[in-house]
Amino acid sequence: xxxxxxxxxxxxxxxxxxxxxxxxxxxxxxxxxxxxxxxxxxxxxxxxxxxxxxxxxxxxxxxxxxxxxxxxxxxxxxxxxxxxxxxxxxxxxxxxxxxxxxxxxxxxxxxxxxxxxxxxxxxxxxxxxxxxxxxxxxxxxxxxxxxxxxxxxxxxxxxxxxxxxxxxxxxxxxxxxxxxxxxxxxxxxxxxxxxxxxx
Length: 199
Prior knowledge:
Blueprint: H1 3-8, E1 11-17, H2 22-30, E2 37-46, H3 49-61, E3 65-74, H4 79-83, E4 87-90, E5 95-98, H5 111-136, H6 140-147, E6 151-154, H7 155-160, E7 165-166, H8 175-178, E8 184-185, E9 188-189
Parallel strand pairs: 1-2, 2-3, 3-4, 4-7
Antiparallel strand pairs: 5-6, 8-9
Helix pairs in contact: 2-3, 5-6
Protein name: ATP-dependent Clp protease proteolytic subunit
Organism: Lacipirellula limnantheis
InterPro entries: ClpP/crotonase-like_dom_sf, ClpP/TepA
């Protein structure tokens, strides 16, 4: 891959709170042509689960061949768009926080509305846990170990679990290496494993 080809690949920084930057991030993803390549840098503590689902859906819906690299933190809701990347890279210092979904509502919410929100959120949490495992090509059991009650997972541990590729700092300057096709894990590309929903 020539330097000219490298420079044409869109680079997107997914940094800070997802919710605060959702419009900008959506526009940046839509700027990538369907089926095109892009490089997404992750350093985010998360945000709204709905925002996470939207960004993840755009990546998958448009068939983006995204390479995601965790340059700092990729936690909470930021895990979904990262897991949607065709190739996932982490460094020895990358940090990812898996935890149960958190929610809050407006102060003036009626009892019936609060009860419905709690029901909806409980189902959403289960569905998103299954989805996250499927995107990573992992198992529900593996996700449960990290999500409940909540665990920080370092880059080396995520790579050891086969969910990303560990890139040492001396390789970070080689963009052609970073954008090479995703390696297979146990004979399958990232995210190729089938996941069964919990009962």
